[in-house]
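We both want to read discrete structure tokens more fluently, so let's practise on a single case. Would you write everything just below, so we can both look at the same thing?
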Amino acid sequence: MPIEIVCKIKFAEEDAKPKEKEAGDEQSLLGAAQGPAAPRDLATFASTSTLHGLGRACAPGPHGLRRTLWALALLTSLAAFLYQAASLARGYLTRPHLVAVDPAAPAPVTGFPAVTLCNINRFRHSALSDADIFHLANLTGLPPKDRDGHRAAGLRYPEPDMVDILNRTGHQLADMLKSCNFSGHRCSASNFSVVYTRYGKCYTFNADPQSSLPSRAGGMGSGLEIMLDIQQEEYLPIWRETNETSFEAGIRVQIHSQEEPPYIHQLGFGVSPGFQTFVSCQEQRLTYLPQPWGNCRAERELREPELQGYSAYSVSACRLRCEKEAVLQRCHCRMVHMPDSLGGGSEGPCFCPTPCNLTRYGKEISMVKIPNRGSARYLARKYNRNETYIRENFLVLDVFFEALTSEAMEQRAAYGLSALLGDLGGQMGLFIGASILTLLEILDYIYEVSWDRLKRVWRRPKTPLRTSTGGISTLGLQELKEQSPCPSRGRAEGGGASSLLPNHHHPHGPPGSLFEDFAC
């Protein structure tokens, strides 16, 4: 029959404190040797978490109606928060933007814009030679023949020089310009620069960006005022209609910045003879957003600082370059108004983004009829023309600033990252009472539990041989025999069985045998 020996030791109160200290040191050493403590259970974590409602839904105890209601409330609030967060994220990813118009700021000195004007008729009929008519037949629609009536099949002319043709046959500003004034000072044709457009030979006032003329006052009389004769008697007769045939009489005008080439056939406006046209301008400074809110062309993202053939990037310059590349790819040539730069045509569609910083001029146009009866007779005598000619050919163009103010229009992000974080924080606090630190608490608890389970998989703890409960130590008999330092005994004298009890009746035992028997 196995026998257990139970040893219960109780120390005195004065000896308990050092013993407890030693036991604590031993436990700390054992804890350090065994590793970190076991992770917290869900109930313990819920009781200390800052997430509202989690402590009540996961409290220890039986699962009653109260805990069930708290769990449902927590799940409902969490679902509502996730729905609102998804809606906010979708709204942010659409990258909404708005246009903010700042109040006009007074500017003491504002640079006057460039003014480009073209006669709608590109070639003067009296200046065209037979060779010119032959080469321009597809543009003008006139039949190619010489003075003797020979048809095109029998005509031979040298290769044309379009620049020379435009310079010779285009309307000359010195003949068209009858009067010119800028800010109260007289000007002339020498203040205009020649530029080529789809309308042929055109002229630009204040074209040099390095020496731009300032406008020192606003209102009429403080800008550019010119009187022009459009010379309708030089307009080409219409023999047949072509893509370039025009039925209008007058001039085309474009107001633009000096860095931007004229794109007058698309962006210009018409001025009719027999009227004085007033153009009131206001400088507008536009700021657009780059990706991902907009599609403007940011300078810091460019591989090339400028377009070939132009000193600065603009939408007009980009469109002209696209036209040149398309014509170059089709017929290996270019038109006179296209940039003179080397390079082949590009494949695919041509995209011209708007620059992120742009200056343009808003316009308000009004007009009055000229001349009146008295001025018609005076102008007819002055320019040696009849009154009918004055009414059909003369016009006055007055371009001025309404006031020396500039209007700033800026495109801004309507919903940025800071607004998204603020809305998410508000929704999180409203529905679940959480914050960023609460999310860190949850992640920390998940990491703690996951790391503990991984360690359990990697190594399994050994089963201890001894167990201790309170102050009572229990040893099995077999354990005691294995760990006993005493030698095993045979039978006692007289054939008695061996015993673990003290042998007080052994008269011949060696000294100390009683202690050894008791210890064993």
Summary: The mean pLDDT is 78. The first helix runs from residue 13 to 34. The two ends are 18 Å apart (CA to CA). The chain is about 35% helix and 20% strand.
